[in-house]
């Protein structure tokens, strides 16, 4: 990750925080720590999402939990998320062929709830706050 990538992660995450469990605003220093402690350590994979070659946001994949998330900059939303997730699923499938990819989506997040079934997620169950989804192993 370059300095620009870290800034992109910070900006896209801050613009998405209404949809996240932790809604505090983060700084560049927080983003740098995230990179050094989790990404560089191999605990989290980060995929930068491009729209027409321009960085539009990122996908993060927590390896131990097999849990995926996506955060796009507001100005690039619509037309990116579904394709980016499908590409990420294929990449992850190669390194984790025996694990289901999981995601927790807030039940107020209409756009992501619409996106999930279109890119291969299946609904597992739901509680008062989240819907829990998985990408079945058959996804290719
Ligand atoms: C959720 C998110 C990744 C979706 O990416 P996107 O590029 O905006 O969405 P896509 O263009 O790929 O659209 C996928 C589907 O979402 C739905 N959708 C898209 N924009 C929508 C909107 N503004 N309102 C409601 N549904 C919408 C549509 O059903 C669409 O499918 P269609 O084009 O076949 O009709 C993106 O909006 C985002 O980053 N949001 C903020 C962060 C977030 O919520 N992350 C998920 C946390 S679990």
Q: How would you sum up this structure in a few lines?
A:
The chain is of the alpha+beta class and 140 residues long. The protein contains 4 helices and 6 strands, in the order ααβββαβαββ. It has one domain (3-135): Gcn5-related N-acetyltransferase (GNAT) (Aminopeptidase).
Task: Lay out the secondary structure.
Layout: H1 3-15, H2 28-39, E1 44-51, E2 54-62, E3 67-72, H3 81-95, E4 101-106, H4 110-118, E5 122-126, E6 130-135
Antiparallel strand pairs: 1-2, 2-3, 4-6, 5-6
Helix pairs in contact: 1-2
This protein binds coenzyme A.
Describe the model.
By secondary structure, the protein is an alpha+beta fold. It has one domain (3-135): Aminopeptidase (3-Layer(aba) Sandwich), CATH 3.40.630.30. It has helices at residues 3-15, 28-39, 81-95, 110-118, and strands spanning 44-51, 54-62, 67-72, 101-106, 122-126, 130-135. Strands 1-2-3 form a 3-stranded antiparallel β-sheet, with helices on both faces. A 3-stranded antiparallel β-sheet has the order 4-6-5. Helix 1 crosses helix 2. Bound molecules: coenzyme A. Residues 16, 19, 57, 69-72, 77-82, 105, 109-112, 114-115, 118 line the site of coenzyme A.
């Amino acid at each position: 990750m370059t300095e620009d990538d870290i800034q992109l992660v910070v900006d896209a995450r801050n613009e998405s925080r209404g949809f996240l469990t932790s809604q505090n605003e983060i700084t560049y220093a927080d983003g740098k720590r995230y990179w050094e402690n989790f990404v560089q350590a191999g605990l989290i994979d980060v995929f930068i999402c491009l729209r027409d070659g321009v960085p539009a946001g990122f996908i993060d994949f927590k390896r131990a939990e097999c849990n995926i998330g996506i955060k796009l900059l507001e100005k690039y939303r619509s037309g990116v998320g579904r394709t980016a997730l499908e590409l990420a699923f294929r990449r992850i499938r190669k390194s984790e062929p025996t694990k289901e990819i999981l995601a927790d989506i807030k039940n107020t997040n209409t756009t992501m709830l619409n996106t999930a079934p279109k890119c291969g997620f299946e609904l597992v169950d739901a509680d008062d706050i989240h819907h829990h989804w998985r990408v079945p192993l058959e996804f290719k």
